């Protein structure tokens, strides 16, 4: 396996580590700089996540189109460099507004995963794409194992320590990329940059002309809104429902990340080869339905840990769906597609944190009509069911 290929996997892994490092301490950090209750912290956590996602929505298609025009290497390296600086800002932030500013800047340059996916599409044959995207997902899962575990441990030394660790990781990966990252956009696949197609609406309009792709993007959007219930409220849900500490929250996220890596890196190629990408998407969402339904009502932290293998099986959905869409567009549109998918995912990250955090606050606050911390999982189940209906009614040239 070539070193640049390993660098791409490492980039995604370190990106996930940076995200996972800070998740266990976010509730305590927000209370530290803003004050208030845990329910208030959940709402501000939703605002921070939404600001980050809003910038990804606006700039995702632009960055994807830039990588089609100027190459994956410069876009990826600039993103990694600014990511490192962003974590430094978060590490020294003394107010909620500086945290918000850090999330805005970070969201603008958070192109690493989309650009890595475009790179993977560049170097993969059509029949390899599901497995290769699965490897990216597995790398993300490995990072998600290490990140929360490290974040939970480092959080014992203060709420700022995980941010410094994330800054160091991103900086080291930037240096590595300077030496090993090669360029995969060739003269034949290079596409001139155009603001008309780079803005979110223009990019959606252009790719919407591909048969069946609009329906797949809607299915992907609803799936992303639903599945984002985990990062949106897990830290708050598990602390409220089970009384977990940051260390325990990090451990649970680490177990999920490990099993997700096993599913995407080990099981996914065999599953798609045996039943195809379309059926993989369907079966994966059925596992999610079971997980959401049970998590909505359980009161046992032990049972929540037992459910993790079931919820991890849903990790087959994104790479299988991504492969279907990637094989639907031309080679010179891969960056644009990944940018649009990044924007769709970002839009879901705008909607989901505010929606899920609001539902959580509504059903755990003093004015709750019914005490039900797991209520956001019922909302997620309904949204994912709607997306599955759209997916089942959508056909493309490759399905």
UniProtKB/TrEMBL annotation:
Keyword match Transmembrane helix: yes
The Major facilitator superfamily (MFS) profile domain, residue ranges: 4-397
Gene3D superfamilies attached to this UniProt entry: MFS general substrate transporter like domains
Entry's localization field: Membrane
Record Pfam families: MFS_1
Entry membrane topology: Multi-pass membrane protein
Transmembrane segments: 42-63, 75-98, 104-121, 133-155, 161-181, 215-237, 249-268, 370-392
Keywords: Membrane, Transmembrane, Transmembrane helix, Transport
Coiled-coil region(s): none
Record's protein name: TCR/Tet family MFS transporter
Organism, scientific name: Ruegeria alba
């Amino acid at each position: 396996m070539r070193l640049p290929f390993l660098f791409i996997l490492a980039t995604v892994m370190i990106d996930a580590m940076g995200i996972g490092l800070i998740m266990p301490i976010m509730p305590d950090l927000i209370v530290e700089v803003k004050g208030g209750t845990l329910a208030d912290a959940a709402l501000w956590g939703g605002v921070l996540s939404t600001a980050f996602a809003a910038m990804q929505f606006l700039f995702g298609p632009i960055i994807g189109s830039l990588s089609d025009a100027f190459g994956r290497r410069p876009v990826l390296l600039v993103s990694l460099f600014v990511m490192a600086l962003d974590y430094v800002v978060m590490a020294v932030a003394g107010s909620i507004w500086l945290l918000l500013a850090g999330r805005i800047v970070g969201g603008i340059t958070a192109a690493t995963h989309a650009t890595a996916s475009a790179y993977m599409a560049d170097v993969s044959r059509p029949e390899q794409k599901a497995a290769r995207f699965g490897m990216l997902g597995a790398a993300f899962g490995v990072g998600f194992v290490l990140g929360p575990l490290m974040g939970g441990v480092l959080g014992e030394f203060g709420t700022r320590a995980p941010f410094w660790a994330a800054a160091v990781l991103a900086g080291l990966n930037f240096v590595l990329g300077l030496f090993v990252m090669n360029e995969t956009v060739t003269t034949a696949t290079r596409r001139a940059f155009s603001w008309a197609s780079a803005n979110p609406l223009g990019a959606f309009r252009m790719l919407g002309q591909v048969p069946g792709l609009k329906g797949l993007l809607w299915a992907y959007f609803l799936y992303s809104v639903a599945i984002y219930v985990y990062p949106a409220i897990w830290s708050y849900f598990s602390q409220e429902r089970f009384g977990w500490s940051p260390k325990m929250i990090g451990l649970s996220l680490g177990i999920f990340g490990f099993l997700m890596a096993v599913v995407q890196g080990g099981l996914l190629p065999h599953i798609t080869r045996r039943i195809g990408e379309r059926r993989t998407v369907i079966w994966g969402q059925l596992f999610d339905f079971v997980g959401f339904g049970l998590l909505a009502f359980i009161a046992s932290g032990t049972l929540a840990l037992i459910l993790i293998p079931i919820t991890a099986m849903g990790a087959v959905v994104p790479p299988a769906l991504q492969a279907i869409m990637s094989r639907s567009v031309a080679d010179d549109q891969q960056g644009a597609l990944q940018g649009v998918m990044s924007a769709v995912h970002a839009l879901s990250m705008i909607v989901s944190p505010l929606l899920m955090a609001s539902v959580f606050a509504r059903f755990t606050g003093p004015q709750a009509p019914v005490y039900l911390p797991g209520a956001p999982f019922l909302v997620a189940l309904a949204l994912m069911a709607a997306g599955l209906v759209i997916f089942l009614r959508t056909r493309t040239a490759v399905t």
